[in-house]
């Protein structure tokens, strides 16, 4: 796992697993297209200060495990990954324009799952430690 990020106002370690696929799940991510796609995604991450912890480009989808800043929005990051890579791949590989005549290379949507070094149980146990014995609020949001 990556180190914690810090600046003058925050300390964080935000990681996510992202998955998105080619439109119609066409298996077009092969050969030079696959290599160029990987290079483009690496360049985008470097430009956006996103660290790739692990990634896989399959023939019809992409998996990325990333570490990102708290000021970044996952939705915006995925939009940049998909938009910039789609435009460049279609410019550089004319055969893709024939298959994707509407200029949409990636399918609509994506999957995103948060990851990290602690579990839900660990967080709940930590928060339960702060609950007072007489706290009978009947809620999961207690007052210390």
UniProtKB/TrEMBL annotation:
Coiled coil: none annotated. InterPro entries: Transposase_17, Transposase_17_sf. This is IS200/IS605 family transposase. Residues 11-130 form the Transposase IS200-like domain. Gene3D superfamilies: Transposase IS200-like. SUPFAM superfamilies: Transposase IS200-like (SSF143422). It comes from Autumnicola tepida.
